[in-house]
Amino acid sequence: MTSNVQRMTVAALEQQLPPAWSSEGLRHQVRLLNEARNRKIIVLDDDPTGVQTVHDIDVLTQWDEELLAEAFDAPEPLFYILTNTRGLDASDAERINREIARNVHKVATLKGKAFTLVSRSDSMLRGYYPLETDVLSEEIARLSGTVFDGHLIVPAFFEAGRVTSGNMHFMVEGSELVPVHETEFAKDKVFGYQNGDLPAWVEEKTEGRRKAEDCLVISVEQLRQGPDAVMEVLLRAAGNVPVIVNALSYNDMDVLAMALLKAEAQGKTFIFRTAASFVKSYAGISDQALLPKEKLIAAGQEQHGGIIVVGSYVQKTTRQLEQLLTYPGIVALEINVEQVLQPTGRKEELDRVIAEANRQLAAGNNVVVYSSRKLIAVDNKTDNLKISQTVSESLVKIVQSLEVTPKFIIAKGGITSSDVATKGLAIRKARVLGQAAAGIPVWLTGDEAKFIGIPYVVFPGNVGGDRTLLETVEKIEG
């Protein structure tokens, strides 16, 4: 929910700032420097949407030593590990981060390679901060003796209109800048917050352990003076200090990436809490056009329908679902959430949806399976998480029970798309092909998956306009 005050536009904000630093060719230089460093950038992604800015890299859904060894041997300087911790409780999130840190350190030591960890989370500030960066920092220090000078907080995500200026993080609606603490996302039942001002947010989330005035800040103005000016700020970092990064564009982010490489070359060590855009710049990933229709349909399955699975409850998802349901011929299968929360009614409800989904897919019809839109919530965070998990488990059960190979699969929402990937489709490692639309990644399932070689569209709950989900299906159908 946003207030009705007159808001600044992006254009008006830019007029108050210096012009962007000329960063032509900078990202390619970053890529070459990364390739020369014999290190891996490893992104621990708390839901599967974080690959929404990259292409032609691998995402792992498990982190055993064998799979990590494969990832370290791959030629790319970057890979992702899907942790799905945003859909878990805090104790599981801590356990998973510690386990990954241990396994990564062991494999990296055996391979003789360095690594840097990026904790990728929501551009709307939801997730387990500071728990995840604290745990990773502690575990790496224990295993290797490395003490981080700072942890960078970089929530900008340009493809979805998330920008940061004056330490305030914004969501762009139309052309207006809405402070994130005034949006529905700040009222999240599990990860809500009061402050969109990032130093104040750090103090809020750390419960005063880190004071707002203790944060280092990298301003847009400093970024637009070039990498050396930013490096000077980074060289002051010590004691794993929070470093707030403002950014309005990839020009700004590419400058940050080069400054980081320069500071790291002088011995500074950092860990990162970021949204998706940072990874593209820091790893030096090139731009790529949106994927064409041909990349979104499974070869040999054109006669079947596709399936869209919707679990997210944010208002944007509900509006997108309403638009999708206007698509001619689409078959709507609503799951009654109140019924699946009752042990006695769950099997009957799921059996009904499973049978109809298989029938319609075989007939060549596209199917949208979605949880009823009435949000069932309680005051207790743990119980709210359990409700979300039960709904997601129900959607997973439907995917597990598909007997017809769909020509495409779209999953809407972070928890939903993660559970569909790992449990519904049994994906162990997938290849990120690119994006179907801005901020909407597409995986190609591997040989171990329930359906081999199927494009899997991971559609975040908070990305796109009201028609983007409908337009994605229209694009697939030509």
UniProtKB/TrEMBL annotation:
This is Hydroxyacid dehydrogenase. InterPro entries: 4-carb_acid_sugar_kinase_N (IPR010737), 4-carb_acid_sugar_kinase_N_sf (IPR037051), NBD_C (IPR031475), NBD_C_sf (IPR042213). It comes from the Bacteria. Belongs to the four-carbon acid sugar kinase family. Residues 41-281 form the Four-carbon acid sugar kinase N-terminal domain. One of its GO terms (molecular function) is ATP binding. Keywords: ATP-binding, Carbohydrate metabolism, Kinase, Nucleotide-binding, Transferase. It comes from Paenibacillus rigui. It holds the Pfam family SBD_N. Residues 308-469 form the Four-carbon acid sugar kinase nucleotide binding domain.
